[in-house]
Automatic annotation (TrEMBL):
InterPro entries: EF-hand-dom_pair, EF-hand_dom_typ2, KCMF1/Dystrophin. One of its GO terms (biological process) is synaptic signaling. It comes from Agelaius phoeniceus (Red-winged blackbird). GO terms for cellular component: plasma membrane; synapse. This is DYTN protein. Residues 65-154 form the EF-hand domain.
Length: 167
């Protein structure tokens, strides 16, 4: 928890320098509280760094493709010359990401995670998949993660400005 807290403090301090007056001074504290609520419901004082990273990536203002690539980097494992994501790593990623909508009562069941894994690995004979297959599956907007592109589209539309006047 201390490592995550320190990282968040640095992250928000840098953000305040880049965007003066636009970042709440309590941003790190609020974000840590959110991460604890999502990933430490039993009060152990422990949150996996990878889970926190997945949440921060998904809530970032980056593009969907950049988020998807970052998920792959955090959860995939090197296998010789290539990096692959296994079924268990995908299960871990989906479980971590589903804590985000769950915090507002919109989580899904374990069975929908298993269905998503089955869909991702449909037609795959190997125990793991390469990044391109993973990205292709995510671009198909699987139901288990539909909230992610939806939130992204909503955030992008907030920045749209039209020069037309309404009557």
């Amino acid at each position: 928890m201390q490592q995550i807290s320190t990282m968040l403090m640095k992250l928000f301090q840098r953000a305040r320098l880049e965007k003066p007056g636009q970042v709440d001074p309590r941003g790190a504290e609020f974000t840590l509280g959110l991460l604890i609520a999502m990933y430490d419901r039993s009060g152990t004082g422990y949150v996996r760094t990878r889970s926190a990273a997945a949440a921060l990536i998904s809530l970032s203002g980056d593009t969907l493709l950049a988020k998807y690539r970052a998920f792959f980097q955090f959860y995939a494992v090197p296998d010789g010359k290539e990096t692959l994501i296994t079924r268990s790593a995908l299960r871990s990623l989906l479980t971590d990401l589903n804590q985000i909508p769950a915090i507002v009562g919109e989580g899904c069941t374990l069975s929908c995670v298993e269905i998503a894994i089955h869909d991702c690995f449909h037609g795959v004979l190997n125990a793991a998949i390469v990044e391109e297959k993973f990205l292709s599956w995510l671009r198909s907007e699987p139901a288990v993660l539909l909230w992610l592109p939806t939130c992204y589209r909503l955030s992008v539309t907030e920045m749209v400005s039209h020069q037309a006047r309404c009557r």
